[in-house]
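Quarterly update, task 2.4: coenzyme A-bound model.
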Amino acid sequence: MTVTNAIVRMVGLPDLEHILAEYGEAIKALPAEESANLLSRPYDEFKAAVENGLFFVIENTAGNFMASAGVFDLATPGEKELGMCFVKKGWRGYGLQTLLLHIRICAATLGQVPDTNADNAATKSYAALITGVKPANARSAANTGEIGFEPLATPSAALFIACAACRTPLASDPGRRCCCDFFSLSDARRAEVIEKSLEMENWSRTRNSDRLIVTLKIRHLQDPQFRKALQGIAHELRSGNPNNHRPNNCRT
Ligand SMILES: CC(C)(COP(=O)(O)OP(=O)(O)OC[C@H]1O[C@@H](n2cnc3c(N)ncnc32)[C@H](O)[C@@H]1OP(=O)(O)O)[C@@H](O)C(=O)NCCC(=O)NCCS
């Protein structure tokens, strides 16, 4: 059995160009139908996600890129979008998309604690977590569905703003506003993901006779105060705290 050690960590501003280059290369090198699934965002949005501490990379001990993904602010403050997930070909099959979903759900939840004194219902909620998946992307649909994302009945207009910069505009389906379908995470499933993430010591998966062990260098899951905060949030999400209303446009 071969064992590869890796880490997952937050991306910093010095990593920007290197990470973008990985996406640029992948877009060129992947087969067209797969490259179309790689929904990269405009530079400013990518940079903002990095500045918000909401972009993560998995790399081996030599610092070579394996996978990456982020969370993006939308024009509506009550929503955040998980996107730009990419697992490099040689590292597929170890569940790295699922690992990156766990980490982003924890980090995005911790990054926006509701203001319970505010009058506006949206500021009393944790931002709804939404993701877009192309109908043909069966692997992503399976991974996001398994973790708990459910179809979003009425996606907000803010989700369609990114369409202006999309590399793969709509084909000839007149009923579609976007090439993606949108999904959101219920409070109960979000609590479940947070609790599972807090139990993780590392991410270890075996494919054939190759083992990958990813050490979690994520302060949201390491720092005792952050962990305590996440435990409290999971409890609150499960108990259906009346201060924790979801925005009206969320089905779940
Ligand atoms: C979608 C993606 C992130 C999934 O990667 P991953 O987390 O490694 O996938 P999983 O670990 O769940 O893979 C499970 C199985 O599917 C296979 N698989 C994963 N991605 C695949 C792909 N794009 N095509 C064919 N098979 C794939 C894996 O090899 C594995 O097979 P196995 O069970 O026989 O070992 C990755 O395929 C990718 O980066 N695709 C291009 C960009 C993209 O689609 N991003 C998501 C946008 S919503």
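Highlight for this quarter: The chain has eight helices and nine strands.
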